[in-house]
TrEMBL record:
Signal peptide: none annotated. Coiled coil: none annotated. One of its GO terms (molecular function) is protein-transporting ATPase activity. This is Protein-export membrane protein SecG. The keyword Nucleotidyltransferase does not apply. Its main location: membrane.
Length: 77
């Protein structure tokens, strides 16, 4: 069981990093250092951006659950 949670944790970590890197910069912060602040802000988010947000939140939830599960297994055994 611990091996399965470790695999899920590693896979979700990699996917979460990739999904976060796919997000568009909102201005300010580190993204403006690399030219991200030059873009004009649009009035609304596109469908693709909303789906990317949902996938990121879902992957983050899986990541948190696997962290908690691994912690519980370590504590018990």
């Amino acid at each position: 069981m611990k091996l399965a949670l470790d695999i899920v944790l590693i896979a979700s970590s990699v996917v979460l990093v990739l999904l976060i890197l796919l997000h568009r910069g909102r201005g300010g912060g580190l993204s403006s250092l690399f030219g991200g602040g030059v873009q004009s802000s649009l009035s609304g988010s596109s469908v693709a951006e909303k789906n990317l947000d949902r996938m990121t939140l879902f992957t983050a939830a899986i990541w948190v659950i696997s962290i908690v599960g691994t912690g519980v297994l370590i504590k018990l055994g």
